[in-house]
Specification:
The structure is a single chain. By secondary structure, the protein is an alpha/beta fold. Helices cover about 30% and strands about 25% of the residues. The protein folds into two domains: about 350 residues, Rossmann fold, CATH 3.40.50.12780; about 100 residues, ANL, C-terminal domain (GMP Synthetase, Chain A, domain 3), CATH 3.30.300. It has an eleven-stranded mixed beta sheet with strand order 4-3-13-12-14-15-16-17-18-23-22, with helices on both faces. Strands 1-11-10-6-5-7-8 form a seven-stranded mixed beta sheet. The protein is globular and about 70 Å long.
Length: about 475
């Protein structure tokens, strides 16, 4: 027997809810003035706003009558159609950080009645699913722009788990719309004609949702369909677009583009987020492609909070509608799309009401032999070494055996441990040299380039104690 939607909501675990700003009671799904204008591009075709709306309305009528939809679509246009369809059907989109079977099954246990919304085969996943059937999409019928109540919960986003267990955060439609509008104002996008958002970060990530889905919907832009990540694929995609594009990416992906000296034509700007961007990478990117490189500072709880042009200096500029204050050791932000006062996990030094320096999270500090250092700074130094493709320092959890000794895992084909350590010794205090340093084939990064805490911890145990895992 099918559960009622109210019953499903009652059984769902609590998610931290974004305070809904009440500047308006409702907001339209899209802001495009001309329904014949492009909503999405892919290599072989263009989708108009009108076609997008009709497809979303058709899919909404076909969805299972449940409360939660786990949108796993890899194609960005398919994700957008599913996201819009769920909104129209008054369903909440769950945005998991992982696609593995066990985490998804756990998600269904937490949100009873949830089903998977997908555009590809999901293997042996024993979860109810709705697979997109393009043959059933209609191109006829009404194409009115739906208006969604501001306080309706549109999505539940989850933290990446880079500092522990992923946390759920409910996002109202009003907060998502106001966040997208704040994003556009932060980069003065109102002065430019509509552009195309091209992304290497999944739409399921809060940063990807803001920049590659909500930004196009609320600024009259179009989005790039597909799910290209590799430099060669992005190069091919950009060469086939008819309008200038903004690349929404991560430091991990941008480093790969710069290292390969990939030719990217048709770019107008680059936005990076999810982790600090090394200034040398930004400088090389601007020299290669002659476009500005910006960074976003934000979090799953509040979305984008500030930005900076990486090559212009260290200071971050707070979004126009936001305010910041300090209380003891904690920094708080409020206003605009954030709503009520939100505590931040990072250490911050405020220069002015809208400018601040980011010192990193408290967990970022390590203390060895009475000296302190930032893991972020140590990682940046490690990754600047010529020949290092990827690398990270590892600080075991407090209380573990061996606490107080830094380790490091490095991907550096053709280099040995001694050479890497000698280069490190030139730039950091000897007490912070990793003991030991492991040369590995790859690191367990997720699709945004982050290293989730539990993944890195398991990886470290496997590398440091291989015999133990063989016998297990």
């Amino acid at each position: 027997m099918m559960q009622s939607i109210d019953s499903q909501m009652a059984q769902a675990p609590p998610a931290r809810r974004t305070h809904t700003p009440l500047k308006a009671a409702a907001y339209p799904l899209v802001s495009h003035r001309d329904l014949t204008s492009p909503m999405a591009w892919r290599r072989d075709r263009l989708y108009s706003v009108e076609e997008f709306l009709r497809s979303a309305r058709t899919v909404a009528a076909q969805l299972p009558r449940q409360r939660f939809a786990i949108n796993l679509c890899r194609d960005r246009y398919h994700f957008a159609v599913g996201f819009a369809a769920a909104l129209m059907a008054r369903q909440i989109t769950l945005l998991p950080t992982y696609r593995a079977t066990e985490p998804l099954q756990q998600l269904v246990r937490q949100y009873p009645g949830a089903y998977v919304f997908t555009d590809h085969q999901e293997g042996d996943l024993s979860i109810p699913r709705f697979s997109l059937d393009h043959a059933s999409w209609t191109t006829s019928g009404p194409a009115e722009i739906p208006v969604i109540p501001a306080d309706r919960i549109a999505a539940i986003a989850f933290t990446s788990g880079s500092s522990g267990v992923p946390q759920a955060h409910a996002k109202s439609w009003g907060s998502l719309v106001m966040g997208a509008r704040a994003l556009g104002r932060q980069f003065d996008l109102s002065q430019a004609p509509p552009r195309i958002a091209v992304g290497t970060v999944p739409a399921q990530h809060m940063y990807g949702l803001e920049t590659t889905i909500m930004l196009p919907l609320q600024w009259g832009w179009s989005l790039h369909a597909g799910n290209s990540i590799l430099p060669a694929d992005i190069r091919t995609d950009l060469a086939q677009l008819e309008s200038p594009a903004w690349l929404m990416t991560t430091p991990f992906h941008l480093k790969a583009f710069v290292s390969e000296r990939t030719t990217l034509s048709g770019l107008e700007g680059i936005i990076s987020a999810t982790m600090p961007l090394d200034r040398s990478i930004a400088l090389n990117a601007e020299r290669l492609w002659h476009v500005p490189v910006h960074e976003i500072y934000g979090c799953t709880e509040g979305g984008m909070l500030a930005s900076r042009r990486t090559t212009a200096g260290e200071a971050w500029t707070l979004c126009h509608d936001l305010r910041m204050r300090h209380s003891q050791e904690t920094t708080w932000v409020m206003g605009g799309h954030v709503g009520a006062w939100l505590p931040l996990a990072d250490r911050i030094t405020q220069r002015s009401p809208r400018e601040f320096l980011l010192l990193g999270p408290d967990r970022d500090l390590v203390k060895v032999a009475g000296k302190r250092a930032s893991l972020t700074a140590l990682n940046a130094t490690l990754n600047r070494i010529q020949g290092v493709v990827d690398g990270t320092f590892y600080w075991p959890d407090p209380g573990q055996a061996g606490n107080g000794r830094l380790r490091a895992f490095v991907v550096a084909p053709g280099m040995n441990r001694t050479a890497i350590l000698e280069e490190l010794r030139k730039h950091i205090d000897p007490v912070f040299l990793p003991r030991p340093l492991y040369v590995v084939d790859s690191l367990p990064r997720n699709t945004t380039g982050k290293l989730p805490h539990e993944h890195l911890k398991a990886f470290a145990q496997h590398v440091m104690h291989p015999q133990r895992h063989v016998h297990e």
